[in-house]
Design brief:
alpha+beta, TATA-Binding Protein, 3 domains, 9 helices, 13 strands, 46% helix, rod-shaped
Length: 369
């Protein structure tokens, strides 16, 4: 065992006096006495030659010398304590007492510097990565905005939106639903391409756009089928010969002729009960003179000379109104007419309408099958 003053102990271990004082407060070391000059003396032993680190604090030895090693005494049993470098603890093998070693000022400062440097480097790298990610995102937005896919997707978003309103406005419900789905697909695809909406998979926005384009085929097929089967909406005239008869209150039909001499209307989706009720309503309006009624046909005039002809065939009704003086001509008159009976012309017109109605009925029956 060798005795050392406080200064010699600090120089040999490379620690400060404050660190040794900390060991004294922790009870890890205590002075053995004083020399003739009054300096405190500490006992210790020499470490093996070639030792480069202190087993107590991890501080490297100065000038490669093997300094003395402090003999740490247990404050309970005064036994020599063993140093565990991995846990930085001193353990007494006799009573099991454990004491935490206090780093020297130099070691503590170095650890703080090292940790601070690592944190600063990590923060710098994280900041650079975020800047690079933002730069790449802006570049991708710019490229997508100018790309053909981005332009076409945006255009078809507005086209699908317009088609949706048009389809619902014309009561084409199925076409409107398809157009609504297309609008959603194109809109989400464009937002993903612009990185406004984050896509979990890289090319998900491309797949959504392609799905929207594929829905154009069923939209066109559905729209074509609805145009061919759905009758036109009937808007009953508010002037002319239409004011001489009751409004049939029908939803669908076509006004084929509407002038000063003749009104000819074809009504679709009209039941037989509605037809019978309409005849009674016309009779209440005065169309009872010269009445001719047979099966699904009714013909009569009113006191003002207007002639009404009604016909019913398979959920369809035709209405014909002739102004006074434009019908029932039996021979050639003074005006140079050829004597052709206008009634024959009306019969031809009615036969053509009935043929057309029969063709519509056959088409609907085939579609239902």
């Amino acid at each position: 065992m060798a005795e050392m003053t406080l200064r010699e102990l600090c120089d040999s271990l490379g620690v400060s006096r404050r660190a040794v004082q900390g060991y004294e407060k922790a009870g890890l070391v205590s002075p053995e006495g004083k020399n003739e000059r009054g300096y405190l003396l500490y006992s210790g032993e020499k470490l093996p030659d070639g030792s480069k680190f202190c087993p107590k604090c991890g501080q490297s030895f100065q000038n490669g010398a093997a300094p003395g090693r402090m003999d740490l005494k247990c404050k309970y049993c005064n036994g020599s304590m063993e140093i565990h470098e991995d846990t930085q603890e001193a353990v007494c093998p006799y009573c099991g007492n454990r004491e935490r070693l206090i780093d020297s000022d130099a070691v503590a400062v170095e650890k703080i510097k090292s940790n601070t440097k690592k944190e600063m480097e990590f923060a710098r790298m994280e900041n650079e990565n975020q800047k690079e990610a933002r730069r790449e995102e802006k570049e991708e937005q710019k490229n997508y905005r100018k790309s053909k896919l981005g332009i076409v997707t945006l255009v078809f978003t507005f086209i699908s939106l317009f088609s949706m309103f048009a389809a619902f406005g014309s009561h084409h419900i199925l076409s409107g639903i398809i157009a609504l789905i297309q609008t959603g697909l194109f809109a989400v695809s464009w937002l993903m391409g612009m990185h406004i909406v984050k896509d979990k998979k890289r090319f998900l926005h491309v797949a959504l756009a392609m799905l929207g384009f594929l829905l154009i085929v069923p939209y066109m097929m559905c729209d074509h089928g609805q145009e061919s089967d759905q009758p036109d909406e009937l808007r009953w005239p508010t002037r002319g010969l239409a004011q001489q008869i009751p409004d049939p209150k029908a939803e669908y039909g076509d006004i084929l002729v509407d002038d000063a001499d003749k009104l000819y209307v074809s009504i679709d989706q009209y039941s037989a009960d509605n037809f019978d009720a309409y005849i009674l309503e016309c009779q209440s309006k005065g169309y009872t003179e010269g009445k001719k009624e047979s099966g699904d046909d009714y013909e009569a005039c009113n006191s003002a000379g207007y002639k009404l002809s009604l016909s019913y065939y398979t959920d369809s009704m035709t209405i014909e109104v002739d102004a006074p003086g434009t019908y029932d001509v039996d021979s050639e008159g003074d005006d140079g007419s050829d004597g052709t009976d206008s009634t024959d012309q009306v019969d031809v017109t009615e036969s053509e309408v009935k043929s057309d109605q029969a063709s519509k009925s056959d088409t609907k029956a085939d579609a239902a099958q």
